[in-house]
Amino acid sequence: MNSSAPTRATATSAGTAGTPAGTAPDPHAAAAVEVRGVTRRFSSRSGEVVALSDVDLTVRAGEFVSLIGPSGCGKSTLLRLIADLDEPTAGELSVFGRPPRVARQNHDFGIAFQQAGLLPWRSVRTNVELPLQLHGTGRGARRARATELLEMVGLADFAEHLPHQLSGGMQQRVAIARALAERPSLLLMDEPFGALDEMTREHVQTELLRLRAETGAAVVFVTHSIPEAVYLSDRVVVMSARPGQVREVVPVGLGEARDRSDDVREDDAFFDRVRAVREALHGADGTTPRGVDRR
Amino acid sequence: MRRQVLLGAAGVGALALLWEGYKLVAPDDGVVVGELTVLPRTNDIAMPHLWDMAARAFEPVNSATDALPLWVAVLVAAAFTLGVAAVGWVVGVVVGLGTATLMQRFRTAESALLPWVVLSQTVPLIALAPLVRRWGSQLEVGTFDWQDWMSVAVIASYLAFFPVSIGALRGLSSPDAVHLDLMRSYGVGWWRTYRSLRLPAAVPHLIPALRLAAANAVIGTVVAEVSIGLRGGIGRMIVEFGASASADPAKQWSPIFGAVLVGLVAAGVCALIARGLARYRVSEVS
Ligand SMILES: Nc1ncnc2c1ncn2[C@@H]1O[C@H](COP(=O)(O)OP(=O)(O)OP(=O)(O)O)[C@@H](O)[C@H]1O
Ligand SMILES: [Mg+2]
Predict the structure, then answer these.
(1) What is the tally of structural domains in chain B?
(2) Which terminus of chain B has a lower count of CB atoms within 10 Å, N or C?
(3) Same domain? B12 vs B108
(4) Residue range(s) defining the domain that contains residue B31
(5) Average pLDDT, chain A
C-alpha cells in the first residue's frame, strides 16, 4: 500500500468513527478491502463514461458494508474492480493487503451476482462443489462440504435437483452456498436478492446474516433497497452518479450485525438509520435519484 | 416415443398407399402435356409394384450358383457404407471440434480460418473425389497403404466437419458473461474453463450439428463411392443395379432402401447421443 493512504483514510473515516464499540479494528490486521483514489473510465464510440471518480473505501475484516446509490453510479464497477474482473484506470486496490489479482488466485473471496448463475447441467450439489472441484479438493471432502452448506441454506432435500427445478429464491440460496464453499474471508455480492419477492427477500436476508455470523467473513454488498442496506450492514456507503463518487458513509450502529434479528426491522433506531441513508441519498438538492428503491 | 413410432409407421404406410394408388390411377405413360411429361410413367419398369420389390429382395442377387439372397447382399453393402460413413463422421467431428476450439481460443485464428471453412464447402464433390484418390495413392508411409475406402471416408469427413465447426464455434462462444466472470473469479485457466463451462454449454448447439454431419457423411459416402468407383458399398450397388433396370426393374429398389436404412441408422445413433447428453440440454436458468 502506498504512503499517501493515511491522509486519504481520514476523508472516508466518517463511518469508522461511528462503528459500535468492540469491533475496533486491529491496526495490524490488513483491511479486507482498501480502495485508494480509484477511477474507472470507459471509453466507447459515443464518448467517455466516468464510472468511478477518485473513490476511497476501507472495509475491515469481518465488516459488512453495503453500497447504495442511483443506477449507473458505478456500484457494480467497484465490485468488479475488487474482484479483479476489471482494472482501474487510476488508483489502487488491495484485498487483505494484496493486489486483487493475487487475492483472486488465492481464492480469498467468494462472489455472487444478481443472476444466480448456476450451471444448468449440474445438480444443486455439484454446483456448490464447483469451486472446490476446480481447485482440486478431493471427492469426499467436496461432498461433505456441499452437504454442510446445503443444510445451512435449507436445501439439503434438493441436492440432486437441477437448477431449473428450483425457484428463483432457492437458486439464489444455492449461489450463496457456492460463494461460501471455500470459507472465504470476503464475500462480494452484487444485488443478490434483486429478483426476489419481499417475503423471500427478508427471509434470505436473515439467513445471510446468520451465515455471515458463522463464517465471520467481511461482506461488500450492492443493493438498491435502503431497508435492506440498513438491516444488513455495519456501514452503508452512499454513492452519487456522474461521476460515480462516495457521497457519504452512514454508520448503522444497530449493534453487532451478527446479533441482529428480524425484530430490528420494527425498531425506532432502524427507521432512524433508514431516514439517515435516505437523506444522504437525496443529497443537497433534495431530489431522489432514479433507480433507488425507497421501500 | 411410442407416439413417434406410430406416426413414423403411418408416414411410411401413407407413402406406400400413394405409390400404389398413383400407379393404379395414372396412365402407363404418365401424364403428357404437349411434348412434356408432367407426371411420371407408371409402367412396371418405371414403378414396379411394392410387392414385386419385396419378392425380388428374397431371390438371389444373380444367377450364379452360390449367389446370396438380394436382401442379404444389400445389408452387407449397407453395413460397409455405414462403416465408411462412420469413420468419416468421427474424423469430421474431431476436426470440426478442433477447428472450432482453435477459432474460439485465438481470435486471429477465427478471422484466418472461418472464410476458408466456408469456402471449403463450395468445392463440388465431383471435382474433389478423383483428386483425393490421386493424392491418397501417392501417399506411402512405411507399410501403410492408402485404400480407396479411405478416400471415400476423407470426402465424407470433409462434408461432415463443416456443420460441426460452425455449430461448435457458436456453442463454445455461448456461455453467459456471468458464468465467464465466475470462472475468472475462481482463477482457473483457459483449459479448465473450456472443459467445465464452454464444452458443456456448447452441447445444445452441437447436437443439431452432429445430426447434420451424420446426414452429410452418409450422402458424401454414397456419392463418393460412385465417383471413386469403390466396390462393396451401397452407392456402387445402386448404379450397378440401375444399369440392368429394364431387365430386372424391381432389383434396383433394394439398394435404394438399403441407403435409406443407412440414413435411418445414422439418425438413430445421433438420437442416442442426444439422449445421453440430455442433461446438457436443459434450458438456461436465470
Ligand atoms: N463494460 C462497460 N463498458 C462501458 N461502460 C460501462 C461498462 N460497464 C459499466 N459501464 C458504465 O459505467 C457506469 C456505471 O455502471 P455500473 O454497472 O457500475 O452501475 P451500477 O451502479 O451497478 O448500476 P445499477 O444499479 O443499475 O446496477 C454506467 O454509466 C455504465 O454505462
Ligand atoms: Mg449494477
Answers:
(1) 2
(2) N
(3) no
(4) 1-47
(5) 82
